[in-house]
Amino acid sequence: MSIPKTQKAIIFETNGGPLQYKDIPVPTPKANEILINVKYSGVCHTDLHAWKGDWPLDTKLPLVGGHEGAGVVVALGENVKGWEIGDLAGIKWLNGSCMSCEYCQKANESNCASADLSGYTHDGSFQQFATADAIQAARIPKGTDLAQVSPILCAGITVYKALKTANLSAGEWVAISGAGGGLGSLAVQYATAMGYRVLAIDGGDEKGAFVKSLGAEVFVDFTKSKDIVKDIVAATNGGPHGVINVSVSEAAVSQSVQYVRSCGTVVLVGLPAGAKVIAPVFDSVVKSISIKGSYVGNRADTAEAIDFFSRGLIKCPIKIVGLSELASIYELMEQGKILGRYVVDTSK
Ligand code: 8ID
Ligand code: ZN
Ligand code: ZN
Question: Domain Enoyl reductase (ER) spans what residues (predicted)?
């Protein structure tokens, strides 16, 4: 394939400013990078946070967002080993890290102080050609449907790692709070595949039917329940053994601390701007609960999460639209109206 000089992208110059669909230069891979012709990219709620600039971490500006990009390798930096032109590759949130600090040495690369983040500190996958560190780029098996696999590259890896962090045994209950969204709809499926019983929490009948179709045994509607803590404790005969918080709601996180079972684990994943966890010290001690943060996953988590997908255990519930329509996806996302994941086709 001949690589063009310019390409279509969605770019913004200020946080919350216009999302411009326009021609920009094709980036040149650095010595350690591969150049990927991105075919499809999932749209994660993190991309909305990055555009709005509502987290206490600055984005690069101007910025091309996106970190669930799936495509084909079209060029290799001069030091790259182990990749060939034509391989399928994925752009993940963790684009690259130092590989030498204490955290990188122990494979906690996402905790590296100099982590480079796709669609945040490094131009991401809302463009037709994007660069990725050859060490961190995800390896996608030949023949994979690139639109279907794209949400695995952030949502899938993140919820898979979060479920491992909850440290559950087969047959135990896990509550997924925010189950109808992008991360949640995959969390329900990974949890089911890992042998857990799923209680899903989200709002509205449509989301209820949706999460049940994905494997949830029980649905609790946060817009209708009069006492959500009581309802969840009753449905799970004493509270879920683990909770994966993927909603963008501060209140939902604090409720999870109340309904989790004694000796259970609350995992924090969703990142509502400015939110705090309110956990009563007395209850936390007497119930001996754990509250843990979980942040994407490492290279092994990536390979494992993709393997669950490749074995047909995870079906990404996607809607495909053109890249030029990104702004309308952000509107739906802000209103909590998305079932599963939107994926953009970079050719439109
Ligand atoms: O590594 C990480 N920790 C990581 C990785 C990727 C994404 C964290 N995230 C963060 C995102 O930045 C975002 O804050 O996870 C959050 C969820 O991302 P998403 O799944 O991409 O968002 P979504 O598709 O909008 O889904 C959110 C769901 O939460 C529901 C909504 O109805 C929607 O279905 N929800 C809300 I908002 N309030 C709720 C409540 N009180 C609720 N569900 C239950 N109870
Ligand atoms: Zn993401
Ligand atoms: Zn490091």
Answer: 16-344
Q: How far is it, in rounded angstroms, from Cα 97 to Cα 94?
A: 7
What's the pTM value of the predicted model, to 2 decimals?
0.97
Between the CA of 181 and the centroid of ligand 1 the distance, in Å, is 6
Q: How many Å lie between the centroid of ligand 1 and the Cα of residue 247?
A: 3
pLDDT digits (tens, 9 = 90+) for 35-84: 999 999 999 999 999 999 999 999 999 999 999 999 999 999 999 999 99
Q: Is there a single domain that holds both residue 40 and residue 89?
A: yes
**Mean local confidence (pLDDT), 97-116:** 97
* 241 close to ligand 1 (CB < 6 Angstrom): no
Whether 306 is in a domain gets the answer yes
Kindly give the number of the ligand 1 atom that is closest to the alpha carbon of 255. 41
Angle at 217 between CA 241 and CA 258, to 5 degrees: 35
Q: Give me the domain span that covers residue 164.
A: 157-293
Residues 10 and 136 in one domain: yes
Token pair listed for 257? 């601390």
Among 297, 328, 312, smallest CA distance to 48 is for: 328
Ligand nearest to the CA of 119: 2
